[in-house]
Specification:
heterodimer; A: two-stranded antiparallel sheet; two-stranded antiparallel ribbon; 12 helices; globular; B: 14 helices; 74% helix
């Protein structure tokens, strides 16, 4: 099992894919309902990572042992709050304006989050080491030639649990039904008595919470965070959502794992290939398969 | 003989009274005031540098406005084209010839390399535009972003142009005189494009793509054309910028750099050259002025307030512009010197 396609790469691919999946679900949910590419979504993920960082540092300062579940809830809450606020402050007033102005606003919100974090004295622009060993002591397991850490196990487990919970919410709760209805037809949903704004708020909260969780998971596995960490993973998660068919949650998950594998194997060939493969996938998908793998084929409405 | 002379004088007077004449004379006066001020040391080189940067940003902003504002597309990979222009011309002047920053022949070669940089950028823009401009709105945005990143990654990978280290020691060819002339020419050319039949096609695509296709505008052709022209001037701007700051690396032309130009376009006003000019100059100066102001404020605040808050201010400005004045400061209004006279006739007849 030497060469590019070995077990180690598969483990890494699953792990990166899980992180992308959590981020890209938020993109796909928001796009499904209000047709906005939320550029700031990658920054919700950054906020989640910092919230986790401060939570761990806080309990470490008090000489307590931080609980993973509590830290997870804190980072999810942070992501959700920021997502909710940016929706209320920046996106809501533009709901019935041209879509492009909402897109530019999203870029503005993204910049605001990045630069404010890097300007705030207690965050700062430089890299910070994520105290992951204070959260969970590291253990490594050997499977053949591959090395599996308990971080990777925690990472994938949390991601899978969250995705299962999300699928349950979307498929089996009233709010989930309202979300699906709004994604199909906003006006008809409103006629059926669904409060669209409430649904959009809820969508942002769910997306932000998942992105925040992804921030914590990234902090655990790649213990290096900075205010600009959200740009590239955000972009790649968006590409994953497009690959899976934007608007489709299973599509986003599938697309993310494909992206994870493509990136890991691409990097194994050459670091430049690894860096560029996501963009190449995006361009190929948009030219040859614009509706994505699991997306519905729709004609352009005039 | 005297009659001929009078003819020439009359022509001169007519020229100075025309709007183009006013534009050129105005720019000349602008140069005539600032150049000696700098030479006699009243205006120091730092502010001269800021003026040069703001002039170059005028080229970049107007060229992005041509794509985003006038043609109604949404490109966010603009600095990728600037990178192509910058690298092309810097490769010629710095790596191939190793020019000193003075002398007539090197200057000529630099101007040639700048135009070549524009042409190569236009070629890249054409090749990118051809497949991608079938996409609309936000998908186009993402693809242009991806292409911008691909261009950056490519320069990162090419050892010949220094890889991630970039090209240091580029000769300082972009002096005030040259930058002023190139900016003036670029703005006039882009203005003329906008007020030609091509520009009409751009505007019709922006207003309604389907409708303009129905009345016989070849939309893909014009979209690719707008993209190519925009890319050309971005390349020229990039070449000027490279020879002004005398050092380039791939990171300089990343997504953030494009966002900076994007802010200028949207705060200035989509579909207004004047707005782009005002915003490019205004934001460059605001950016430099805030450096001092924020350092002053720092003394009164409990925590450090420094120049790093500038981008926060700009992002708030961008969001506020979008929320309260969606069309930007100038909307689609123009300063009258930037509108050709023929346009008034058209406006009078309601055409």
């Amino acid at each position: 099992m030497n060469g590019i396609f070995n077990l180690q790469q598969i483990i890494n691919g699953i792990q990166i894919g899980s992180i992308y999946a959590l981020i890209s679900i938020g993109y796909t949910l928001v796009y499904g309902i209000i047709k906005l590419i939320n550029f700031a979504h990658g920054d919700f993920y950054m906020v989640g990572a910092y919230a986790a960082y401060f939570a761990v540092m806080f309990s470490a300062a008090r000489k307590e042992h931080p609980n993973v579940i509590i830290v997870l809830i804190i980072s999810m809450a942070a992501g959700a709050v920021v997502a909710f606020l940016s929706n209320r402050i920046a996106y809501k007033p533009l709901r019935y304006k041209p879509r492009l102005s909402a897109l530019i606003t999203a870029i503005g919100v993204s910049m605001f989050l990045e630069y404010t974090s890097s300007a705030l004295p207690f965050i700062g622009p430089s890299f910070k080491a994520f105290p992951q060993s204070q959260l969970i002591p590291q253990k490594t397991y050997k499977i053949g030639s591959a090395i599996l850490t308990n971080y990777q196990i925690v990472n994938v487990t949390i991601a899978v649990v969250l995705m299962v919970v999300l699928t349950y919410i979307i498929q089996h709760t009233r709010m989930g039904m309202a979300m699906r209805a709004s994604a199909q037809d906003k006006d008809a949903a409103r006629l059926m008595g669904i409060d669209i704004e409430k649904v959009i708020d809820f969508t942002f909260i769910v997306g932000g919470a998942l992105a925040g969780a992804a921030g914590l998971l990234t902090g655990i596995t790649y213990p290096r965070i900075n205010p600009y960490m959200g740009i590239i993973p955000g972009l790649k998660a968006f590409i994953a959502a497009v690959l899976g068919g934007i608007g489709s949650v299973p599509g986003a998950m599938l697309g993310s794992y494909i992206m994870g594998f493509a990136e890991v194997f691409g990097t194994a060939i050459n670091s430049i290939v690894g860096e560029g493969i996501a963009y190449a996938i995006l361009i190929l998908v948009l030219i040859f398969l614009p509706q994505g793998l699991l997306g519905k084929k729709t004609g352009e409405k005039v | 003989m005297s009659k001929k002379k009078r003819n020439i004088t009359q022509k001169m007077i007519r020229f100075f009274k025309s709007r183009n004449g006013k534009l050129i004379t105005g720019t000349f006066i602008f140069w005539l005031v600032l150049y000696p001020l700098n030479k006699f040391g009243i205006l120091n080189n730092y502010w001269m540098h800021v003026i040069n940067v703001s002039l170059i940003y005028i080229i970049l902003t107007v060229s992005l406005n041509l794509i985003n504002g006038f043609t109604g597309q949404f490109s966010i990979g603009h600095m990728g084209f600037a990178a192509v222009g910058a690298y092309t011309s810097a490769t010629i002047t710095t790596i191939l010839f190793k020019f000193p920053s003075h002398g007539f022949v090197p200057y000529l070669v630099f101007i040639g390399s700048m135009i070549l940089g524009g042409i190569v950028a236009a070629l890249v823009g054409f090749l990118i535009g051809l497949p991608t401009l079938r996409l609309r709105g936000d998908y186009l945005a993402i693809v242009t972003l991806a292409f911008g990143e691909i261009i950056r990654v490519t320069f990162n990978a090419i050892k010949f142009v220094g890889g991630p280290r970039g090209i240091p020691g580029i000769p300082n060819f972009s002096n005030f005189t040259l930058v002023t002339i190139v900016t003036l020419i670029s703005v006039i050319i882009m203005r003329n494009v906008i007020y030609s039949s091509i520009g009409r096609a751009f505007l019709s695509i922006r207003e309604d793509e389907v409708a303009s296709e129905l009345v016989g505008v070849h939309t893909t052709y014009y979209k690719v054309m707008g993209f190519t022209i925009g890319a050309f001037f971005a390349g020229v701007g990039g070449a000027l910028l490279a020879h002004l700051i005398q050092y380039i690396n791939p990171l300089q032309f990343g997504f953030m750099a494009t966002i900076y130009v994007l802010i200028m376009v949207y705060i200035g006003g989509i579909g207004s050259i004047s707005g782009s000019i005002v915003a490019a100059v205004g934001i460059t100066f605001l950016s430099e002025g805030l450096r001092f102001m924020l350092n002053r404020i720092d003394a009164f605040t409990p925590f450090r307030v420094g120049p790093e808050w500038r981008m926060v201010i700009f992002s708030v400005l961008l969001v506020a512009t979008m929320l309260y004045k969606t069309n930007g400061l100038m909307g689609d209004k123009e300063f009258s010197v930037l509108i050709p006279e023929e346009e008034d006739e058209n406006a009078k007849h309601g055409a």
